[in-house]
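Hi F.,

I've been meaning to write this up properly since the lab meeting, where we talked about keeping a consistent format for the predictions we share between groups. The idea is simple: the sequence comes first, exactly as it goes in, then the structure tokens exactly as they come out, then a line or two of notes. No screenshots and no reformatting. I'm using this chain as the first example so we have something concrete to point to.
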Amino acid sequence: MYEPIHPKSPLETMPTMYDLPSELVGESGLPDEFHIIQADLLTETCKPVGYASEEILLATDLNLYYDPRHTSWYKRPDWYMVLGVPRANEQNELRLSYLIWQEGVTPFLVVELLSPGTEDEDLGQRLREVNQPPRKWEVYERILRVPYYVVYDRYENNLRAFELSVNGYKPITLTEQRFWIPSLGLGLGLWQGVYQETKGLWLRWYDQNNWIPTLAERTEAESQRAEAESQRANRLAAYLRSQGIDPDNLPS
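Output, unedited:
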């Protein structure tokens, strides 16, 4: 008996992340030490309100394939956040790239760290060439419609942020080099300090009251609290002994 052949769905026929290159292919602006450290700080201090860590992807230099009609086209943001996608729990599940047609979720925020020679590309100041993929600005603004786009130039200590509107990106007015994202319950701004033993002006997340602490800062704060508690206990024990009371024999 003849059985009709049903065509496969696009998801079955389109390339997966195993079929596409995950390394840089002829791109300028290769990651340097600053890019690595800055991305680490963004990841370590990013704690959106209302989202569990296992449903947030924080990606650094991970190829972003964005066009199912041109499956070899990609951008490689310095850092980006995707909300509502599962984070890998096993090593063999770690992403080689991020494919829009498989994941189905657009990044919520993209950060580009300006390098010499990349400013025109990152800020949309270079026109698209004929028969070439679109520039970053066009991809983020018009194709993916990423809600927030952030550009930081460490050479000029210049932070620029953009929010998507109906007509495209509009600049966000910064207050003391910071801006707030209500839906995340977080803000992003420039912080002067030392991170990974390197002093500088860093892009960092903050909540309504303070900069989100790093693991090293939380550890140091806990150590200081423990030391203060130990000193308080020692002073109390010394006082009790001065009054003829053995603190070790006090009733519990």
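Notes:
The first helix runs from residue 10 to 13.
The mean pLDDT is 86.

If this format works for you, I'll send the rest the same way.

G.
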